[in-house]
């Protein structure tokens, strides 16, 4: 079980991690500033295993991979949204952060709700109800399963 | 079955006869651009690989443009890492030459290529009929190591352009109008393809401005038909097309839009969304603190000419900082030769070196709490240009310059 952190539509990558932190040396240095403009306490409140739930077009804007990377570094288990902007979506899969499309969840959760995601079953359970998620295409699920895109390079001898 | 331009480029890069939307293919990439926004992280990941290697160093172009010249000790460390790596591996490297996409257009990109850029506005390359798409550093590293990547074939939205833009209306007004019409995710995962007789009335600078902004509608890439204007631009810059693709008559589009250029008006995108567009007249009188003429979207010589023509023999409003930032060193030199920079400086504008500047809100010209910027930059997201509680309006070079004179949002016919 993890807690829900809820956001609205068109959350852009500048709001996930602002430009002035991107040239810091490491993701660990940046992660304290995650969602700074939307929820300044997010980074201190979020615990490993928690979830980010959003409405349409999550992660629109720049291609900064720092956006999914800071979420992963803070231990966010998955981002569940009605839809994702494509570069964020692709980057998240490439680094092994689950990004799940679930059309009916957003209206039915509140911040702080305890939630559980079963990737295998493709369902989210919260407040005594189940919500079905859209399955990833097989190819992309394969990248996630192996731990991200770089893992496949390191498998080679 | 007919194919679109995007499908033809992917088919060629995948070495197959035919592709269709939804297919995933392994593709050979022609070029890989990366800038100082993420390259330091790519390098860290590179050194953690079991077998670090570069498939073809000639495909790589690295450009320091976001925070140049360097603004802090932390940035200096990230830049040094990038500079040293480029030197050690013989990677084509630019620092201070301009905003990455303008540098790429001037020096590298050609028609029919498939290009990954570690920057979302890589879709600008569609102006010459190249498939450019923005990626993160993991994607970039994988492509750098293997020369290849995976690509899901996008559906295509087709925009048939007719007519000609009215006097005083620009490509930027056109693309903001289109984004307003289809929405900030209206082209999510899709290619936006432009063609028709109206395209022939748009010069290369206008074409770059249009393609560059397509990611603000969520597009994976933007593509324009190759014509004599494309060929002349490439020839002028010493290059030839790799392929000249046009969509087949029976190509399948997700949707077709007919756009009459003569109906487009000056447009402003209000805070905090690029699709939040209104007729510029509706914003007239809005207080501003700063105006910005520059960026990969609107910092070319054509844009500076528009601004200088309006500003000539006038003054920037005393309470406004007007930042003028040519998109590349080549643009800067030409503006100097044409006397444009003198016009800007005489009027009280601040002319700066080519870089991303306040468009990305981290280097120079950032705005403070509750301040208002009118900008030819790419985005107006909350906090994009500085303080989280500040406001960015997007408009054409003409509207931005007129506003800098008036000290409030104004259109060019008002000054």
Mind sketching the topology for me?
The complex is a heterodimer of chains A (157) and B (415).
Chain A: E1 2-6, H1 13-16, H2 27-30, H3 42-45, E2 51-54, H4 66-73, E3 78-81, H5 86-95, E4 99-101, E5 114-118, E6 123-126, E7 129-132, H6 138-145, H7 149-155
Chain B: H1 5-14, E1 24-28, E2 31-35, H2 39-48, E3 60-64, H3 73-89, E4 92-95, H4 100-107, E5 114-117, E6 131-134, H5 137-146, E7 148-152, E8 156-162, H6 171-182, E9 191-195, H7 204-212, E10 221-224, H8 228-236, E11 255-260, E12 267-269, E13 277-279, E14 290-294, H9 295-298, H10 301-311, E15 321-325, H11 329-337, H12 340-346, E16 350-351, E17 372-375, E18 391-394, H13 397-406
Parallel strand pairs in B: 2-3, 2-5, 3-4, 5-6, 8-9, 8-11, 9-10, 14-15, 14-17, 15-16, 17-18
Antiparallel strand pairs in B: 1-7, 12-13
Helix pairs in contact in B: 2-5, 6-7, 10-12, 10-13
What does this entry look like structurally?
The complex is a heterodimer of chains A (157) and B (415). Chain A is α/β, with parallel strands linked by helices. Chain A has seven helices and seven strands. Chain A starts with a strand and ends with a helix. The mean pLDDT of chain A is 95. Chain A has a seven-stranded mixed sheet with strand order 4-3-2-1-5-6-7. By secondary structure, chain B is α/β, with parallel strands linked by helices. Chain B folds into two domains: 5-262, Aconitase, domain 3 (2-Layer Sandwich), CATH 3.30.499.10; 267-414, Aconitase, domain 3 (2-Layer Sandwich), CATH 3.30.499. Chain B has 13 helices and 18 strands. A five-stranded parallel sheet of chain B has the order 4-3-2-5-6, sandwiched between helices. Chain B has a five-stranded parallel sheet with strand order 16-15-14-17-18. Chain B has a four-stranded parallel sheet with strand order 10-9-8-11, covered by helices on one side. Chain B starts with a helix and ends in a 9-residue tail after the last helix. The mean pLDDT of chain B is 97.
């Amino acid at each position: 079980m993890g807690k829900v952190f809820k956001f609205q539509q068109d959350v852009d990558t500048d709001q996930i991690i602002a430009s002035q932190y991107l040239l810091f040396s490491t993701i660990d240095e940046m992660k304290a500033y995650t969602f700074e403009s939307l929820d300044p306490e997010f980074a201190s409140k979020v615990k490993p295993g928690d979830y980010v739930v959003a409405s349409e077009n999550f992660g629109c804007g720049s291609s900064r991979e720092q956006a999914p990377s800071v979420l992963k570094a803070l231990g966010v288990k998955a981002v569940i949204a009605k839809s994702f902007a494509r570069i964020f979506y692709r980057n998240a899969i490439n680094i092994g952060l689950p990004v799940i499309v679930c059309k009916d969840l957003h209206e039915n959760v509140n911040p702080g709700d305890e939630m559980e995601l079963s990737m295998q079953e493709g369902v989210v359970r919260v407040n005594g109800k189940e919500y079905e998620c859209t399955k990833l295409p097989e190819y992309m699920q394969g990248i996630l399963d192996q731990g991200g895109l770089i893992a496949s390079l390191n498998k080679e001898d | 079955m007919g194919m679109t331009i995007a499908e033809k480029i992917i088919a060629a890069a995948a070495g197959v006869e035919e592709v269709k939307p939804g297919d995933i293919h392994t593709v050979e990439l022609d070029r890989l651009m990366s800038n100082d926004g993420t390259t330091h992280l790519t390098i860290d990941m590179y050194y953690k690989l079991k077998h670090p290697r570069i498939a073809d160093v000639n495909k790589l172009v690295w450009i320091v443009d976001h925070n140049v010249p360097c603004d802090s000790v932390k940035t200096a460390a990230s830049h040094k890492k990038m500079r040293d790596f480029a030197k050690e591996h013989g990677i084509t490297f630019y620092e201070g030459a301009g905003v990455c996409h303008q540098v790429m257009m001037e020096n590298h990109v050609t028609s029919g290529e498939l290009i990954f850029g570690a920057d979302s506005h890589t879709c600008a390359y569609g102006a010459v009929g190249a498939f450019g798409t923005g990626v993160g550093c993991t994607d970039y590293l994988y492509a750098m190591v293997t020369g290849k990547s995976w690509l899901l074939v996008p559906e295509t939205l087709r925009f048939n352009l007719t007519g000609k833009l009215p006097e005083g209306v620009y490509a930027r007004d056109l693309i903001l109008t289109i984004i307003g019409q289809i929405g900030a995710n209206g082209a999510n995962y899709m290619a936006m393809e432009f063609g028709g007789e109206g395209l022939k009335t748009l010069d290369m600078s206008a074409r770059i401005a249009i393609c560059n902004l397509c990611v603000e509608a969520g597009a994976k890439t933007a593509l324009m038909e190759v014509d004599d204007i494309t060929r002349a631009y490439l020839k002028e810059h010493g290059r030839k097309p790799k392929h000249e693709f046009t969509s087949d008559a029976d190509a399948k589009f997700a949707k077709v839009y007919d756009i009459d250029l003569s109906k487009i008006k000056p447009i402003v995108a209000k805070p905090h969304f690029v699709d939040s567009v209104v007729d510029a007249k509706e914003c007239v009188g809005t207080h501003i603190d700063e105006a910005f003429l520059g960026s990969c979207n609107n910092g070319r010589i054509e844009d500076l000419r528009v601004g200088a023509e309006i500003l000539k023999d006038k003054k920037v409003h005393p309470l406004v900082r007007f930042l003028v930032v040519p998109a590349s060193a080549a643009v800067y030199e030409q503006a100097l030769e044409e006397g444009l920079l003198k016009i800007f400086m005489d009027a009280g504008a601040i002319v700066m070196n080519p870089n991303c500047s306040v468009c990305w809100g981290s280097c120079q010209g950032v705005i403070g709490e509750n301040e208002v910027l009118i900008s030819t930059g790419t985005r107006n997201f909350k906090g994009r240009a500085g303080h989280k509680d500040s406001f960015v309006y997007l408009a054409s070079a003409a509207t931005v310059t007129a506003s800098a004179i008036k000290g409030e949002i104004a259109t060019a016919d008002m000054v």
